């Protein structure tokens, strides 16, 4: 049953999140398949499989919120391109880049991002979704760093060099996604939108830059990867 008065954009935003969760699930499924082909440790592969399932649960929970907000549309997914795609590079490099971009960067910033979305969220279905998502994202973040660590253990300095070379482009994409270098569609979020777990676009950029200092720099540094002078 839709809520009596739902603030603007809530249904669309949660539907967009359903689409993002399918995308995360597809990316993880592709990465897991590559890691199987690369002979990654079974416990790492199993952790990846668990994440594929988590993301589908996030999609269901998000769809429930969208429906409560009056949006019952199915997710619009680009079937031909969802998931990861091979380049000309060797498989291990495609897998390494995906692990760094989607997990070390993407899932690491997802933790404080979803915590911020949850802060003023009081609508029950939205709160339940964000509680579960926040809990899972910590594990997803850790999977990324454990995977990168495995690549460094097995490929050594070549893996470090390849990450350092790819980081600036990845950070540029991430900053664009987080509302920098473009027009912000909505810079403010009303109190009632915040109760549904929406966050103003300006907060996305702020959370990302805080994450750079608090997480990316020290975590890459601990693995012998230079982040500071590159990004
Ligand atoms: Fe998710
Ligand atoms: Fe995730």
Describe the SSE topology.
Layout: H1 10-37, H2 42-68, H3 91-119, H4 124-155, H5 157-177, H6 191-195, H7 201-222
Any overview of this molecule?
The protein has helices at 10-37, 42-68, 91-119, 124-155, 157-177, 191-195, 201-222. It has 231 residues and is mainly alpha-helical. The protein has one domain: Ferritin, core subunit, four-helix bundle (Ferritin, Up-down Bundle), CATH 1.20.1260.10. Helix 1 packs antiparallel against helix 2. It is globular and about 60 Å long. The relative contact order is 0.14. Bound molecules: fe (ii) ion (FE2) (2 copies). Residues 24, 55, 107, 110, 137, 140 line the site of one fe (ii) ion.
Total number of β-strand segments? 0
Coarse shape: globular
For the sheet with most strands, the description reads: none
Q: So what's the CATH class?
A: Mainly Alpha
The proportion of strand residues reads under 5%
Mean pLDDT over the residues:
94
Query: What is the H/E string?
Result: HHHHHHH
Uncertain stretches of 5 or more adjacent residues: none
Number of domains: 1
CATH architecture: Up-down Bundle
As a percent range, the share of helical residues equals over 70%
CATH topology-level fold name: Ferritin
List keywords for this structure.
single chain, 231 residues, mainly alpha, Ferritin, 7 helices, globular, binds fe (ii) ion
């Amino acid at each position: 049953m839709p809520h009596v008065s739902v603030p603007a954009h809530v249904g669309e935003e949660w539907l967009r999140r359903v689409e993002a969760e399918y995308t995360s699930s597809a990316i993880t499924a592709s990465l897991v398949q590559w890691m199987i082909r690369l002979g990654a440790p079974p416990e790492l592969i199993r952790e990846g499989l668990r994440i594929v399932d988590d993301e589908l649960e996030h999609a269901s929970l998000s769809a429930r919120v969208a429906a409560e907000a009056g949006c019952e549309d199915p997710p619009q997914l680009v079937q031909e391109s969802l998931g990861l795609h091979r380049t000309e590079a060797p498989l291990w490099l495609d897998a390494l880049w995906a692990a760094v971009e989607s997990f070390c960067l993407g899932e690491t910033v997802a933790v404080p991002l979803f915590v911020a979305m949850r802060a003023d969220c009081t609508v029950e279905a939205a709160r339940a979704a964000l509680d579960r998502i926040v809990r899972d994202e910590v594990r997803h973040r850790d999977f990324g760093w454990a995977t990168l660590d495995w690549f460094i253990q097995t490929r050594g300095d070549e893996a470090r060099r390849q990450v350092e070379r790819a980081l600036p482009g990845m950070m540029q994409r991430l900053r664009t996604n987080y509302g920098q270098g473009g027009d912000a569609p909505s810079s403010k979020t009303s109190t009632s939108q915040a109760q549904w777990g929406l966050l103003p676009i300006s907060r996305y950029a702020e959370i990302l830059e805080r994450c750079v200092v608090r997480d990316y720099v020290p975590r890459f540094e601990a693995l012998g990867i230079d982040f500071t002078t590159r990004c």
